[in-house]
């Protein structure tokens, strides 16, 4: 006679059995099937290889590239991540096989915040239409042309006055720089700038800054969405999403104010009016399109976020490099003195003559490596790449750091040496490996705006001030903190007026 073993009904046994079965399931799902790119050993249940990573991915990625080659893979939670290293591999994927590699992956936080609409997190036909529309509008507003340069110069004048107000006392210029840089994008998208002491605007800027920092801690939810169901908000996901929603409220308010005075505004005075006009024209001609409110709201937020944090971080990096490498600062100042003197502000017409400054800006973008993993890419379908199988739902990271800081390419990548970008004729040379804005179809949409801003802000700052450390204490580290971007840890400088 068969008897039922009562231990099977014991809750502890059920629990242990349950945990073991779940672990087995996870193990099976995170076991690297044959054909995938190689990578670090067996993935652990639930966490995959996350235990091997710190918040700063750079050290682990460099080691794995050495061990496994230019295409390696790992599991972050249950999600397969494929890391592309070195220019030939990144170029082959993003340029040669652009039809396959130009999507964005479905990532939990992105889906929650953006619904995969707008510019940065959309894919396929929707993304193509949003990107084309945004680029056309930005070009109309003079991205890369003099009209926009004059607007930026006006903003720089306000910024310089605000720096002067500190009278050479030690100051952390982060918030001021962020607000000023974001004003350039605000002029384009909203048609107005905000005063540096506008409490509402400062509030939004702080909120976005906090989100940039918190997004590192929340990123784990992208790989283990199950954690969302834990009580409380351990990974700050709810906080990050609710801050993003508050920012959307602000953007929506700006859009509805624009909608209210549409009757008076048929001309394209700013991005919102231009986008609305384009949408109306397409609708009148019965052309199906994606130019709706949600895409407008998201595209504006994308331009604002992508255009503020990156460029202001690059300006702060430059000041920090100047503290560590005062001779570079002196050389930039000398060049500006020779070419412009002190009687007028630098303009875009001076750019071809300020070759050392140009090389310095390139060296900042290379060495600071502000967006090291680019924005994650996704795939249009399963693909065979360099002999490996990469499934459609993998996250692909074009690891820009592997190019920008590769010893094989630059020899001494850790040194800050603008001369590496100067040819024997004293003119700037741009090696193919200089890719801080990414490459391929999803290359940074704001590159020419960013280059124009960096030139005008830095040329004017260097002309007007000498940047010195606050005192005798050791200089702030050049290590950088990894969040959405790699940014310098907070630091103070003294901006001593030159004249
Ligand atoms: C120093 C400044 C900047 C750096 C280093 C930078 C870098 C990057 C990088 C690496 C990407 C990802 C490319 C990829 O996914 O393969 C990107 C995307 C993007 N950037 Fe920038 N960026 C900067 C400034 C700006 C500015 C000023 C704007 C705004 C006008 C902007 C708007 C965007 C947008 C909208 C995307 C997404 C493009 C798409 O998905 O199609 N960026 N940027």
From TrEMBL:
One of its GO terms (biological process) is organic acid metabolic process. Its main location: membrane. It is found in: Membrane. GO terms for cellular component: cytoplasm; membrane. Pfam families: p450. One of its GO terms (molecular function) is steroid hydroxylase activity. Heme binds at residue 444. The keyword Metal-binding applies. Keywords: Heme, Iron, Membrane, Metal-binding, Monooxygenase, Oxidoreductase. SUPFAM superfamilies: Cytochrome P450 (SSF48264). Its cofactor is heme. Belongs to the cytochrome P450 family. This is Cytochrome P450. It comes from Littorina saxatilis.
């Amino acid at each position: 006679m068969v008897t039922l073993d009562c231990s099977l009904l014991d809750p502890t046994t059920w629990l242990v059995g349950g945990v073991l079965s779940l672990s087995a399931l996870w193990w099976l799902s995170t076991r690297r099937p044959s054909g995938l790119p190689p990578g670090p050993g067996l993935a652990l249940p639930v966490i995959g290889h996350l235990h091997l990573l710190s918040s700063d991915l750079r050290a682990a990625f460099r080691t794995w590239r050495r061990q496994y080659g230019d295409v390696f893979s790992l599991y972050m939670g249950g999600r397969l991540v494929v890391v592309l290293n070195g220019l030939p591999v990144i170029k082959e994927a993003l340029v040669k096989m652009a039809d396959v590699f130009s999507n964005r992956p479905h990532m939990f936080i992105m889906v929650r915040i953006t619904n995969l609409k707008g510019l940065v997190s959309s894919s396929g036909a929707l993304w193509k239409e949003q990107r084309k529309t945004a680029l056309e509008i930005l070009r109309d507003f003079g991205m890369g042309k003099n009209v926009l340069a004059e607007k930026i110069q006006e903003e720089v004048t306000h910024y310089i006055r605000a720096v002067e107000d500190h009278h050479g006392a030690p100051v952390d210029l982060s918030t001021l720089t962020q607000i000023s840089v974001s004003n350039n994008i605000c002029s384009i998208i909203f048609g107005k700038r905000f005063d540096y002491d506008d409490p509402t605007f400062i509030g939004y800027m702080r909120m976005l800054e906090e989100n940039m920092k918190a997004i590192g801690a929340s990123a784990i939810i992208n790989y283990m969405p199950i954690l969302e169901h834990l009580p409380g908000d351990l990974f700050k996901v709810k906080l990050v999403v609710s801050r993003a929603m508050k920012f959307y409220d602000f953007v929506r308010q700006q859009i509805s104010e624009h909608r209210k005075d549409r009757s008076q505004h048929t001309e394209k005075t700013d991005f919102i009016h231009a986008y609305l006009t384009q949408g109306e024209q397409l609708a009148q001609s019965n052309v199906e399109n994606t130019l709706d409110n949600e895409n407008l709201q998201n595209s504006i937020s994308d331009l604002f976020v992508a255009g503020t944090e990156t460029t202001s971080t690059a300006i702060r990096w430059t000041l920090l490099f100047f503290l560590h490498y005062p001779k570079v600062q002196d050389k930039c100042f000398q060049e500006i003195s020779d070419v412009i003197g002190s009687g007028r502000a630098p303009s875009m017409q001076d750019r071809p003559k300020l070759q050392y400054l140009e090389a310095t800006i390139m060296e900042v973008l290379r060495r600071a490596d502000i967006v090291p993993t680019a924005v994650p890419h996704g795939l249009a379908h399963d693909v065979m790449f360099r002999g490996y199988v990469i499934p459609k739902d993998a996250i692909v990271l074009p690891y820009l750091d592997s190019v920008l800081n590769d010893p094989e390419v630059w020899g001494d990548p850790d040194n800050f040496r603008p001369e590496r970008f100067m040819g024997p004729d004293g003119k700037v040379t741009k090696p193919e490996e200089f890719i801080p804005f990414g490459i391929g179809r999803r290359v940074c949409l704001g590159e020419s705006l960013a280059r124009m801003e960096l030139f005008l802000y830095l040329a004017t700052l260097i002309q007007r001030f000498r940047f010195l450390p606050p005192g005798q204490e050791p200089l702030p580290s050049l290590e950088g903190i990894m969040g959405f971007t790699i940014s310098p840890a907070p630091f103070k400088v003294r901006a001593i007026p030159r004249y």
